[in-house]
Amino acid sequence: MSNQTIMAFDYGTKSIGSAIGQTITGTASPLKAFKAVDGIPKWDEIEKLIKEWQPNLIVVGLPTDMEGKDLTTITTRAKKFGNRLFGRFGVTVEMHDERLSTQEARAELFSMGGYKALTKGNVDCQSAVVILESWFEAQYG
């Protein structure tokens, strides 16, 4: 298996978390959270990150309910965000189930740093880490 760099995004209408990982280790690290206005980020900031890391693939968290069904608007918007990433930057994008990623991210951050670690940006980036590591597990088990 060749080593590939994979980037992940946890899409939200106010904030979008990001993480980076390697297929060789199957682990991810938080990068940064991007402020968004009604789900639209400053694309030039995302472009800078993509140019810096040059990922082979981008994984975007797909919000669903507990049964795996699409949620009313956020699921569609996350898919649209993934399509825009592909359209703007030409990097292949995969959607990945993100059920319970925020709860898991909060628990991990709290265990590392208590309530002070639970800032919105930290939670969004840690959620992207959870999404990416879950994707690695699904791919390489």
Automatic annotation (TrEMBL):
Keyword Transcription regulation: no
Key words, A-Z: Cytoplasm, Hydrolase, Nuclease, Ribosome biogenesis
Domain YqgF/RNase H-like: 4-105
Listed Gene3D superfamilies: YqgF/RNase H-like domain (3.30.420.140)
Compartment annotation: Cytoplasm
Gene Ontology annotations for the cellular component aspect, listed alphabetically: cytosol
BP terms from Gene Ontology: rRNA 5'-end processing
Pfam families: RuvX
Primary enzyme class: hydrolase
Predominant location: cytoplasm
InterPro entries in UniProt: RNaseH-like_sf, YqgF, YqgF/RNaseH-like_dom, YqgF/RNaseH-like_dom_sf
EC number: 3.1.-.-
Molecular-function GO term, any one: nuclease activity
Main function: Could be a nuclease involved in processing of the 5'-end of pre-16S rRNA.
Assigned protein family: Belongs to the YqgF HJR family.
Record-given protein name: Putative pre-16S rRNA nuclease
Taxonomic source organism: Vibrio algicola
